Amino acid sequence: MTPSTPDEVAAALRRAADARQTIAIRGAGTKSDWGRDGARADAILDMRSLNRVLAHEAGDMTATLEAGAALADVNRALAPHRQWLPLDPPFAERATIGGVLATNDSGPLRHRYGTPRDLVIGVQLATTDGVLSKAGGRVVKNVAGYDLGKLVAGSFGSLAAIVSATFKLAPLPAASKTLRADIADAASLARAIGAVMNSALDPIAFEIVSRARAAGSRFGLLIRFASVAAAVDAQAAEAIATLQPYAAGVAALDGDAERSMWREHADAIWSGDGAIVRASWLPANIARVVEEVEAFEFVGRAAVGAGLVRITGSDDDQARVVERLRASAVVGNVVVARASAAVKRRVDVWGSHGDRQTLLESLKRAFDPTGVLNPGRGPI
Amino acid sequence: MNRAFLDELRRIAGDTHVLDDALELLTYECDALPHLRERPAAVALPGSAAEVQAIVRLCAREGIPFVARGHGTGLSGGALPVAGGLVIALSRLNRVLSVDIPNQRVVVEPGVTNLEITRQVAPFGFYYAPDPSSQQVCSIGGNVAENSGGAHCLKYGFTVHHVLGVDAVLPDGELVHIGGDLVDTPGPDLLGLLVGSEGTLAVVTRIVVRILRRPETVQTLLAAFDTIDAGGAVVSDLIAEGIVPAAVEMMDALAIRAAEAAVHPNFPPADTVLIVELDGPASEVTSLFDVVVATCRRHGATAIEVATSDEQRARIWRGRKAAFAAMGRVSPNYYVQDGVVPRTRLPEVLSRIRDLERRSGLRIGNVFHAGDGNLHPLICYDERVPGEADKAVEVAAEILSYCIEAGGSLTGEHGIGADKSQYMPTMFAAEDLALMQRVRAAFDPRGLCNPGKVFPTPRLCGEVPGPYRQHPIEAAGLADRM
Question: How far is A235 from chain B (nearest CA, A)?
Answer without folding.
Answer: 8
